[in-house]
Amino acid sequence: MAGTVVVFDFDKTIIDCDSDNWVVDDLGFTDLFNQLLPTMPWNSLMDRMMKELHAQEKTIDDIAEVLKRAPIHPRIVPAIKSAHSLGCELRIVSDANMFFVETMLEHLGLREYFSEINTNPGFVDEEGRLRIIPYHDFTKSSHGCNLCPPNMCKGMIIERIQASLEGKKKIIYLGDGTGDYCPSLRLGKADYMMPRKNFPVWDLICRNPLLIKAEIHEWSDGEGLERVLLQIINMISVEENKDNSAQLISVDCKLQTISASNQALPQALPVPQ
């Protein structure tokens, strides 16, 4: 499966919550967050909230412990490990921040499975305060995409990934939010889009599926994510090997542990005629 790159969003895709809200709510700063939200971009607000947490003597360890309690469906970790064992390259494109993402991946034992994490930089400064800065410095220039927040255009990140692959690999993209719609528009006919059903990106895609060139397969929870993702990977493997051998490849043993593995792959999102 050297020919497949799987790109995951993080919040509400790998973990089953928004990590920013999870930290702010758990540490008791929801009211201040909601008060400041109308006054500044989300990314800037999170940096401000880290300042407030530090001022109230909340430590980096306090934040890390909250992150380690974030909810995650029990089939997500096995799904990621299986995709990696099947030979896929795994990457993350997330509008969270590097400290949050790496803290949770390391806690879950998943950091080594991802070759690249694209997210907002997050680091601890000399005072011990977590700083969160934008992936794209919108104070200096605009990234020019009106679909995305000012600090990150995921579509531009996907285009950079595509350019590095030189058209030799298929991309499977998994996401849930509004920010995942722009990258879905950049995927090609050979790629796959896996939107989380009844979440914002799904709603946007359903408005006009004709705009999406990639094949669309929805999922609803971690069990569905695992089943659909691994069946797509296996289907790609079969297609790749048809050119070299008439014999179909056998299903990897990991796929056989999935209770629903013998079910047909869910049909692609129908396109209105």
Please tag this protein with its features.
273 residues, alpha/beta, Rossmann fold, six-stranded parallel β-sheet, two-stranded antiparallel ribbon, 10 helices, Inorganic pyrophosphatase 2-like, metal-binding
Determine the CATH topology. Answer: Rossmann fold
Mind telling me the CATH superfamily name? HAD superfamily/HAD-like
Beta-strand percent range: 5-15%
Please compute the radius of gyration using only Cα atoms. 19 Å
Q: Identify low-pLDDT runs.
A: 246-262
Percent of residues in helices comes to 25-40%
Structural class comes to alpha/beta
Run of helices and strands: EHHHHHEHEEEHEHEHEH
| Beta strands, count | 8
Give the distance, in angstroms, between the N- and C-terminal Cα atoms.
34 Å
CATH architecture: 3-Layer(aba) Sandwich
Major sheet: arrangement of strands: 3-2-1-6-7-8
Number of helices: 10
Shape designation: globular
Please state the average pLDDT score.
90
Number of domains: 1
Largest sheet: 6 strands, parallel
CATH class: Alpha Beta
Tell me the layout of helices and strands.
Blueprint: E1 4-8, H1 19-26, H2 30-36, H3 42-55, H4 60-68, H5 76-85, E2 89-97, H6 98-108, E3 114-120, E4 122-124, E5 130-132, H7 154-165, E6 170-175, H8 181-186, E7 192-195, H9 200-207, E8 215-216, H10 222-242
Parallel strand pairs: 1-2, 1-6, 2-3, 6-7, 7-8
Antiparallel strand pairs: 4-5
Q: TL;DR of this structure?
A:
With 273 residues, the protein is α/β, with parallel strands linked by helices.
